[in-house]
Design goal:
Layout: H1 5-10, E1 18-21, E2 25-29, E3 37-43, H2 56-72, E4 80-83, E5 99-103
Antiparallel strand pairs: 1-2, 2-3, 3-5, 4-5
Bound molecules: adenosine monophosphate (AMP) and zinc ion.
């Protein structure tokens, strides 16, 4: 997927502030942070989102990366929230599966904000 911005970050074609990576996953700072720590965790391989027949191994790699990313960004102790937006109602804007890791300040207890 050469036209996908997150594929281009994963393969180094466009720059990003990478905070953690392994052979399956890349984690980088969100361009428009919504919290003091806002990192996107993506699989190196392109999946458009949760509905794209993502194999269990790819889900596992993303979830396993989260605590490592939290440690790398200093929020493992203070806590963090993981969010995956999927499809139009969730406001997904980049069609490459990604997990938002948000932390660094207390967040509201609510899970859902309707538009
Ligand atoms: P979503 O709304 O879940 O699809 O989130 C997409 C996120 O990607 C947004 O928070 C954007 O700020 C972020 N984003 C888009 N392009 C870039 C980029 N080139 N580098 C870092 N973050 C990006
Ligand atoms: Zn992609």
């Amino acid at each position: 997927m050469t036209e996908c911005v997150f594929c281009m970050i994963a393969n180094g074609t466009i720059p990003a502030t990478i905070v953690w990576e392994d052979e399956h996953v890349v984690a980088f700072r969100d361009l428009h942070p919504q919290a003091p720590v806002h990192v996107l965790i993506i699989p190196r391989r392109h999946y458009s989102g949760m509905e794209d027949e993502v194999p269990a191994e790819a889900h596992a790699a993303l979830c396993a990366a989260a605590p490592a990313v939290a440690r790398a960004t200093g929020v493992a102790e203070s806590g963090y929230r993981l969010i995956v937006n999927t499809g139009p109602d969730a406001g997904q804007t980049v069609a490459h599966l990604h997990v938002h890791l948000l932390g660094g300040a207390p967040m509201s207890e609510g899970m859902v904000t309707l538009a």
